[in-house]
Amino acid sequence: MSPISVFRIATRAVRPSGFIRAAQLPRPRVQAPVALAIARPSFSTSAKRFGGHHEDETYEEFSARFEKEFDGVQDVFELQRNLNNCFAYDLVPSVEVLTAALKAARRVNDYPTAVRIFEGVKAKVETQEQYKQYLEALEGLRQELGVALREELYPEEA
């Protein structure tokens, strides 16, 4: 039974059965939501897939899936939704995924999101050295697309 069905059943008003209809009790305007099962955190090295299946997915499968999703992006909303989904996992996206995301940002002509991709990487990595490695790997594409870093745009905040 889906969680929505459980919610509908739980919030349905109690209706008396029989020939004589009892007076309806006033329903509260705000009903308390039904507590749904919350997924427990997983401490594995694979990412959980929250689609139709709840299987473990390897880092390579994760990267291939998001590369494909970014290659199919046609508007800004879809780009930002995919970025939110990608960065929601407890891992840093691969260089290939970030390349596909930057190309998608260029395709939909969204410069601010391209700058934010690098901010997201900086927030996700554990050390400054890892961030520098990502910057080195993406330097050519960054120069080709003309994407500046936040540190370059606002040097006084860095």
Automatic annotation (TrEMBL):
Pathway field: Energy metabolism; oxidative phosphorylation
MF terms (GO), sorted A to Z: cytochrome-c oxidase activity; metal ion binding; oxidoreductase activity
Protein topology in the membrane: Peripheral membrane protein
Transmembrane segments: none
Compartments (UniProt record): Mitochondrion inner membrane
GO cellular component assignments: mitochondrial inner membrane; respiratory chain complex IV
Keywords, alphabetical: Coiled coil, Heme, Iron, Membrane, Metal-binding, Mitochondrion, Mitochondrion inner membrane, Oxidoreductase, Transit peptide
Subunit structure: Component of the cytochrome c oxidase (complex IV, CIV), a multisubunit enzyme composed of a catalytic core of 3 subunits and several supernumerary subunits.
Protein family membership: Belongs to the cytochrome c oxidase subunit 5A family.
Function of the protein: Component of the cytochrome c oxidase, the last enzyme in the mitochondrial electron transport chain which drives oxidative phosphorylation. The respiratory chain contains 3 multisubunit complexes succinate dehydrogenase (complex II, CII), ubiquinol-cytochrome c oxidoreductase (cytochrome b-c1 complex, complex III, CIII) and cytochrome c oxidase (complex IV, CIV), that cooperate to transfer electrons derived from NADH and succinate to molecular oxygen, creating an electrochemical gradient over the inner membrane that drives transmembrane transport and the ATP synthase.
Protein's name according to its UniProt entry: Cytochrome c oxidase subunit 6, mitochondrial
Organism: Aspergillus niger (strain ATCC MYA-4892 / CBS 513.88 / FGSC A1513)
